Amino acid sequence: MKDLKVALLLYRPSASGISTYTVEVAKALSSRIREVYLCSLGMNARTAHELKSKGVNIFEIGTSDRVYSDALGWLFLHYMLMSKRIQRALRETNIIKRVDILHFTLTPAALTFKGYVANAWVPLSMAEEPKKNLLSFKFPINILANFIAIQYRALDNLVYRRASRIIAPTRWIYSRLANKYKRVVYIPPPINPANRLANHNRDIATLLFVARNLELPRKNVNGLLNAVRILAHKGLKFRVLLIGAFSTRFHRFVSVLAHETGVDIRLKGYVSREKMPMFYAISDAIVVPSFYEELGYVVLEGMAYGLPLVASNIPTFRDFVQDGVNGFLVNASDDATLASKLELLITDGELRKRMGQKSLEIIKENFSPKVVADKLVKLYEEVINE
Fold it and tell me: E-assigned strands of the chain?
C-alpha cells in the first residue's frame, strides 16, 4: 500500500454522474493508498456506510449546496462561494495540511485553489463552439444553455491553468484538451465487476432504460419508445423497464403506448444507485440512446453486470461500447436502426450472452478499480516528485 494521503473534492448529490465517479474513485483508491478523504456536500447514509467500511474518511462540508443555487444565475459567483467555503473547511479541520494531493473531481470547485489534480468534463454538448450557436433556439442549442456553456468553459479554463495535472476520463475529452493543455492524462473511470451477473436464459427479453429524469430531452427516451412501437408492429415479445422520475402526463403517454402495442412497459420511478443491482440482474440489455452524456456510468454499470448494450454513437460511449462486440452503436436520431439492433438482442439469447460476456471482459481489462487506482497513484506520485 502506497504511503499517500488524498482528498477527493467533491461529492455533490445534484451532480449525479460526477458523484458516482467520485465514489468509485474513492473505493478504488482505498485499497491502494494510506488514507482517502472524501469531502461531501451531503451524502446519503447508505453510500457513506459503504465507503466507511472500505476505510474512506467522509468529511461533510455541509448537508446541501442550495445556498449557491440562487447566485443570480452566475456560475462564477456560485463556484467562487463554494470554493471559498471548501477552502475554509479544509483549513479549519487541518485536512489541507494532512494530505499529499487535492484531487478535484468537481472541477469548478477548485476555483480558489492552486496546485491540484483536476478532472476534465464537458458540461454541455454545444460547449465546443458556444458563440457560433448563441442565437439558436433549437434543442439542445439555445440561449440559456449557451450562456451556461460559455461560463463553464471560462471556469474550466481558469481551473486547468492552475492544475498540476488534468485527468480526462474519456479519450474524447483527452483529444479536446491535449493540444491546449500539456498536463492532460487519460485515466478511465473505475467500476467493480458485479458478483451477481445478469441471467440471459429468459424466454422474453427485458430492455432496461435508466435516467434520473425520464423526460430529460437529452436522454432520448422517445427514441426508445418509437423503437418499441416499431418492434411491436413486427409482433416481437419483450419487456421494457423504465427507471427514473416522471410526470403524470408521461405516465399516461406510456400507458396508452403499452395498451396500443401490447408491450409490457413498466415505470419504476426514481431508483437510487444503491438499489439498482436488482434491476440490472433482471434485465437482458441496456438501452442508452442519449444525445449527449458527460460520462454515462449506467453504461459501465450495465457492462459490469454482464449486459450487452445498444447505445448512441456519441464520443463518450465509444470508449465503452465496441460496436458488434459487446453491443451496438447507433445514431441517436435513427429510431429504425435502434429498433433493428434491439431486435437482434431480443430474438437471440446466445448473442445477448456472448456480448454480455464481452462487456464483463472489457470492464475487467480496462476499468477495474485496481487498474485505474494504479494509474491514479502513478500520477499523484509524479505530481509530488516534481
Answer: 2-11, 33-40, 57-60, 101-104, 117-119, 165-168, 184-186, 205-213, 238-245, 264-269, 285-288, 309-312, 327-330
Q: Do 2-190+368-385 and 205-366 come out as alike in CATH topology?
A: yes
Q: Which three cell numbers stand for residue 363?
A: 470492464
d(CA 246, CA 269): 7
CA neighbor of 324 nearest in space, from 312, 310, 305, 314? 310
Residue 351 to residue 111: CA distance in whole angstroms: 48
205-366: CATH topology: Rossmann fold (3.40.50)
Question: Between the CA atoms of 163, 169, 175 and 176, what dihedral angle is there, to the nearest 10 degrees?
Answer: -60
- Residue spans of the domains in the chain: they are 2-190+368-385, 205-366
pLDDT in tens, 186-196: 999 999 998 76
Per-residue confidence at 243, pLDDT binned at 50, 70, 90? very high
Check if the beta carbon of residue 98 is closer than 8 Å to that of residue 73.
no
> Which of 158, 170, 163, 236 has the alpha carbon at shortest distance from 203?
236
* The domain made up of 2-190+368-385 is a member of CATH 3.40.50.620: no
- Whole-model pTM: value is 0.90
